[in-house]
Every structure is written in C-alpha cells, then in structure tokens.
Design goal:
With about 400 residues, the chain is α/β, with parallel strands linked by helices. Helices cover about 45% and strands about 15% of the residues. The longest helix has 21 residues, at about 240-260. The chain is globular, with a radius of gyration of 22 Å.
Length: about 400
C-alpha cells in the first residue's frame, strides 16, 4: 500500500514561472514518481483558473484542493493597520501577513478534514510560514516536513530594505522560523548556508535539498566554442524582484563601462527575464540586447558563452546561478552566490567580489582553455550534487525514516 503524503503549498505552482514555483512543482512530481499517494492543498490567487487546476489534477492523477487567498492588495493604510491590530489580539505570534494566510479558518477546516478522513502518513509543508497549520497535524501525531526555499526574515530584509519599519516586520517572520523549527520533524533547507541557520535556531533534523528543477538542466558535456566575440548573459525571472534589479544595475552601470573600455567589441551582453524597468532602456544599445522572457530557454542558452551572475543580496538558492553551472556554462558570480555548495574559485566557477574582479574574470574568459576546463569541472560537480538520483535519495530516505519512526513509536 502506498504511503499517503499531504502537500500544503503556498500558491498553485503549475505552470511554474520562477524558481520557487519550479521547485514546488518538481517536488510534487518527484513524490508522485517515487510512488507515494499524493494529495495537494494549495492557496490560489484570483487570477488562477479553477479549470486549469482541475486539468492539472487530472493530468497528474492527484487530487488538488484549492483555497483562495484572503489578502486585499487594495486595502488602505488605515485598513491594514486595523487588520494588524485585530491580528495581534487574536494571536500576537501571527503578525506576519504571510503566516496569517495559513491561520485562515477556511484553510484550517479543509486541512483538518483531510487529516481526519484521508489520514496521511506525513504532511509536507512548502515554506516555514505555513506553521499555523502544524498544531493540527501534531494533534494527529503525523510527522511534519518543512521545505524552506529561503530563510524568510533575512530574505525579507534584503528584498525590502533595512529600515525601522521592516525591522518590526522582521520579528514576526523570525518567530515564524522558530515555530517551524520547533514543530517540524525535519527541515529541508535549500542550501548548506541556510541549513546552518536552522541548526543555530535549534533544529535537530536538517537536511540540504537543492532546487528540484536542477536535474532537468544537467548536461554531461557542453560544446565550448572558440569565438572572437563572446556572448555574455544575465538572467532573472522578473525584474520586479529587488535582488534581480540590483544585480542588473551593477552589471550595466559598473561592469559594462569598464569592459567596453578594456576589451572593446569583444563581448555581447544579453539580458533574459520579464518586466525590465524603463530606466534601463538607455543601456540597450550596441552590445547590449534585452531578450525578455524566452519561451525556449534551452535553445537560447546554447549560443551563450559566459554566465555573468552577480549575487549582491537575496536569500535561498538562486536559480540564475545554479542553472548555468548545471548546464556547464562558464560562470562568474559572487562568493555569497554559491551559498555553501562545493563550487570553488578557479576550479569550477570564477568568484568576484567587486566590479574590477568581474571585469578581470571576463577578460580572462577569452581564453578558451579556461572556459573549457571550468565548464567540465562545473558539470562534474553539478552532476554529483544535483542529479535526480541524488535528490531522490535525499527525499526518499528521510521520508521513509520519518514514516517508519512514527509507526513504530
């Protein structure tokens, strides 16, 4: 008999449109492939179609139970303040707006019905701010896995800014991490660096589980071409995201002017990703091309020679860095970008801490032998870390152990 796993996810992730959606969608597909009986409870926004959700449910052979988000993006400042005050008196631990969506009574009722009637062997929660539901699972003595895509309080500050108001909002998000650690039987952290953060919070059972979309990107070999003019690219899912804009700003304003002086007409820069702000239009000339959202990324990247991916802020495992590495594309990034994974400067990646170092590495990458060597080593390391077999082993061994322990105690 198949073990039942109830997945609670933050927003319906099909079709995936970014790193978080890709990770969660591939996680559901992985559990199905591994032979578990899967059911999904998901929040949905007003622009998501119930018809599309039903079709995905039929295609996957999995029941998907949607519950609408309750947030109101058009609320005035006074209305938001009133909501915070009411939330404080209801439960001062749930001041975080993201967590409050999972304190929703409709969602709690749906979740309790599934726990009572379906009786899963394990509950898998996507994101730590789902923690208001954990007490219900604990009442049924059901093991809890929490998948953390990022350490939420740090991610919030880096995306929204270090100011007094955001420090106040940081606190309830930090409380949410503590609650998730306290109530989870296992935390699946997304990087070694973030695993250490959870261990410092007191988590006894933490495993590193990389982005589950990476196995699809893996290559055994890459054709590194000898060219006079090299194609350099930066990619982000959308430039509505602060850390994407900041990295792009750094490339266009600090790296590009210097490389154009030092290696004139040697590089062509390509920008992938949706919603480029108009303020950058003035940089789109001569050797800078905005490609926008690319439907077939695989084909588009075939003609790219170098991935230039500064990582100046942002938490989690930044897909824009690890996808090129998994494809064997010679990559320049920041030391913080590798997030504790075993990528080493001048072995399988080039690491740079300022604009001058990024420019120096770009110039060095004109050497095809360097590009070939780093490509081969990046592929070797990526296939060791991110293969489907490796990720299956991490997930399967931990799930089986939790289910076995729960059934024998």
């Amino acid at each position: 008999m198949k073990s039942k796993i109830l997945v609670v996810t933050i927003k319906f992730p099909f079709p995936p449109t970014g790193a978080c959606e890709s990770d969660r969608a591939n996680g559901i597909l992985q559990l199905i492939r591994l032979g578990f009986d899967v059911k999904v409870i998901t929040k949905i926004t007003n622009y998501q179609s119930l018809k599309d959700i039903q079709k995905t449910s039929e295609d996957l052979g999995v029941e998907i139970i949607p519950v609408s988000y309750k947030f109101d993006t058009k609320a005035s400042g006074a209305q938001k303040l009133k909501k915070y005050i009411l939330r404080f008196f209801k439960n001062p631990l749930i001041l975080d707006g993201a967590a409050s969506e999972f304190d929703d009574q409709e969602l709690k009722n749906v979740f309790k019905i599934q726990m009572e009637n379906w009786q899963p062997a394990l509950v898998w929660f996507d994101c730590t701010y789902t923690w208001p539901l954990y007490a219900i699972a604990k009442n049924y003595k059901t093991p809890i896995i929490t998948r953390s895509p990022n350490f939420e309080p740090i991610h919030f500050l880096e995306e929204n800014g270090y100011n007094p108001i955001n420090y106040l909002r940081f606190l309830p998000k930090f409380i949410g991490e503590v609650m998730a650690v306290k109530k989870s039987n296992l935390i699946f952290a997304i990087t070694p660096r973030e695993a250490r953060s959870y261990e410092k919070l007191g988590a006894k059972n933490v495993e590193v589980l990389p982005l589950r979309g990476l196995p699809k990107c893996l290559k055994k070999k890459r054709n590194v071409k000898d060219k006079q003019k090299l194609n350099v690219f930066f990619m982000g899912s959308t430039y509505n995201v602060f850390h994407m804009r900041r990295a792009l700003d750094f490339i266009l304003k600090e790296i590009l002017p210097n490389i154009n002086k030092m290696a004139t007409n040697k590089f062509s820069f390509h920008i992938f990703g949706a919603k480029l702000p108009k303020e950058y239009n003035g940089y789109l000339k001569e050797n800078v091309v905005y490609r926008g959202y690319v439907e077939n990324l695989e084909d588009a990247l075939e003609d790219m020679d170098i991935a230039l991916i500064p990582s100046l802020c942002g938490a989690g495992m930044q897909q824009k860095i690890f996808e090129p590495l998994a494809r064997g594309i010679p990559t320049i990034t920041s030391p913080r970008g590798v997030a504790g994974y075993s990528f080493e400067n001048e072995k399988n990646v080039l690491l740079a801490s300022d604009a001058d170092e990024f420019v120096e590495h770009l110039i060095n990458f004109q050497d095809i032998h360097l590009r070939k060597n780093l490509s081969e080593q990046a592929l070797k390391t990526s296939n060791q870390l991110f293969s489907q077999d490796k990720l299956n082993s991490i997930v399967l061994s931990n799930i089986n152990k939790l289910i076995y322990d729960s059934q024998t105690h």
